[in-house]
Amino acid sequence: MKISDLLNENNTIADLSAATKEEAITKLVATMELSAGKELTETSLAAVLEREAVMSTGVGKGLAIPHGRVKGVEENYVAFGRLTSSIEYGSIDQMPVTMIFLLIGPESQSSQHIKLLSRISKLMNNDEFRERVNSCSSSTEIIAAFQQEEA
Known about the structure:
By secondary structure, the chain is of the alpha/beta class. The protein contains six helices and six strands, in the order βαααβββββααα.
C-alpha cells in the first residue's frame, strides 16, 4: 500500500499551526472526522495521546510519527502536517519537530500498521525528500511529492 494513496486534501495540512504536540496531534486526528465519524475520532485521539505519554514518537530530523491502533477502526487513516513553526516534541535527537505524520489503524491489523509505519519512516528518512516536502507551498504539492517519490 502506498502512503500517497491515503493522503488527500482533507488530511494534508501544508501550514499546520500548533504550539504543542498535543495541539498538533489533535488537529491532525480531527481530519479523519469526516470519514470516520466523531466517536472514532475521539477514540483515536485518546489512543494516540496515550501512546505518546508512554514514549515520544519524535523520531528525529524534525519528524514525529504519532500513531495508534484503535478498536472499531476498520481502515487505515493518515494525516500529514507541516508546521508553520517548530515545536518541542521530546524527540530522540532533542530537536524540535517541523513535520508530523499521523497513522491510525485497526486494532486487529498490527502487521499492516507496522508496514505502514516502516514505509513512512523510510520515505521521511530521505533527506532530499524531506527538503522537497518542506519546499512545497500547498497540500496539493505535498501530495504530489509523495506520489512522485512512491512512483
